[in-house]
Design goal:
The chain folds into 3 domains: about 210 residues, HUPs (Rossmann fold); about 100 residues, no CATH class; about 80 residues, Beta Barrel (Elongation Factor Tu (Ef-tu), domain 3). The protein is about 25% helix and about 30% strand. Strands 12-15-14-13-16-17 form a 6-stranded antiparallel barrel. A 5-stranded parallel β-sheet has the order 3-2-1-4-7, with helices on both faces. It has a 4-stranded mixed β-sheet with strand order 9-8-11-10, with no helix packed on it. A hairpin with a 2-residue loop joins strand 5 and strand 6. About 0% of the residues have low confidence.
């Protein structure tokens, strides 16, 4: 009998995952991860970790499976939270959930499970794993979840073949409503519990307050840039053709828009450019405008936030992005493209974004994604992922 350690989080998804695995004949062990202790910045009303552990233990009792807990807070701080602080300090926007899966759930947690004698680890992610033969090797495909509104494959875009070989996703073929129904039928304590929100294992936070643990607040100017300002250097809505592009053309397309204080007019002040990200609307506290203001750029060096009116402001849209060579990651290494190659994929630059058409170009300078339609809110530090049908093939950190 194969042994599976399930990451019981205190939510309905992991609870049903554990139930299904037991029904399939696995020896199931529930393991709760405590990854964060500090409540600085946590919004009032957010459930603390001990509530999560209590619900996880109630589920384990109901399913009659062993229950254990593990403290991975040191690993989480060093490998996820410190990375967050460092990236925000540079004016970039990290995705802690992707890092949490790569560094904690499918690394530190996986290693702990293997030390317990487990053959696999399982989570409540809405995605699927499929194994296929590729020559003499077995290849593990990472597929989108069956529920289009809950597909979480993007959050796993940095997993390796080795990590996938040990991973099970028992609810990936189900819709969310079906998961809730199963939990209710089995009288699991988590059946009606709300889904967690916010930063992985930290919860819903006031981000500036959370970040001020290490990043100091600094007063700076908010500069509004008019849509017609000539300094864009190119039309943000320009189309990308189907033909091959030179390295210089790709580099120019992926270059972010750059502004100077004289690019617009001061309309307010902020408490630190590193607390803002491209496309952000809330937290600017500038009123009296015909349309809402959105962040179109930040300059951490000068401590300036540049904004534009309306969600269609051209400064919000870009036709391409770049990924550094050392940040290119292939979930399917057997499908990796060599330098000089290009291939059409479906692309995604954030969770729950509908897949976008575009082309991945590989050069000696890294990977470039060119989009059929300019994309809103491309942010350095976020992850871009490329899909072939419903299979997530690779990903990378957006450099610019």
């Amino acid at each position: 009998m194969k042994t599976v350690v399930v990451g019981l989080s205190g939510g309905v998804d992991s609870s049903v995952a554990a139930y299904l695995l037991k029904q399939q004949g696995y020896e199931v062990i529930g393991l709760f991860m405590r990854n964060w202790h500090d409540t600085t910045g946590t919004l009032e009303g957010d459930c603390p970790w001990y509530d999560d552990q209590m619900f996880a233990e109630l589920v384990a009792r109901r399913l009659d499976i062993p229950f254990r807990s593990i403290d991975l807070s040191e690993q989480y701080r060093h490998r996820v939270v410190d990375y967050m602080f460092d990236e925000y300090g540079k004016g970039r926007t990290p995705n802690p959930d992707v890092l949490c899966n790569r560094e904690i759930k499918f690394d530190a947690f996986l290693r702990a499970a293997l030390d317990m004698g487990a053959d696999y680890v399982a989570t409540g992610h809405y995605c699927r794993r499929e194994d296929i033969a590729a020559g003499s090797c077995t290849v593990h495909r990472l597929l989108a979840g069956a529920d289009p509104g809950k597909d979480q494959s993007y959050f796993l875009c940095q997993l390796s073949q080795e990590q996938l070989s040990r991973a099970l996703f028992p609810i990936g073929h189900l819709l969310k409503g079906e998961v809730r129904r199963i939990a209710a039928e089995q009288k699991l304590a988590t059946a009606e519990r709300k889904d967690s929100q916010g930063i992985c294992f930290v919860g819903k936070v006031d981000l500036p307050v959370f970040l001020q643990q290490q990043l100091k607040a600094r007063r700076g100017d908010i500069i509004e840039v008019a849509p017609e300002w000539a300094g864009y250097g190119r039309c943000a809505a320009q189309a990308v053709g189907e033909g091959p592009l030179s390295d210089a053309e790709l580099d120019a397309l992926a270059e972010p828009y750059h502004y100077l204080p004289e690019s617009g007019v001061k309309v307010g002040e902020h408490n630190g450019a590193h607390f803002y990200t491209i496309g952000q609307r809330r937290g600017l506290n500038v009123g009296g405008k015909p349309e809402p203001l959105f962040v179109i750029a930040t300059d951490v060096g000068r401590n300036i936030v540049y904004v534009g009116q309306g969600q269609h402001h051209p400064g919000l849209y870009r036709p391409a992005l770049r990924i550094r060579p050392d940040e290119m990651h292939w979930v399917r290494p057997d499908l990796a493209l060599p330098a000089g190659a290009r291939r059409r994929f479906s692309l995604r630059i954030r969770y729950r974004q509908p897949l976008q058409g575009g082309v991945l170009h590989i050069t000696d300078n890294g990977g470039y994604l060119t989009f059929d339609e300019p994309q809103r809110g491309i942010s350095a530090g976020q992850f871009a992922a490329w899909y072939d049908g419903d299979e997530l093939v690779g990903s990378g950190v957006i450099d610019r």
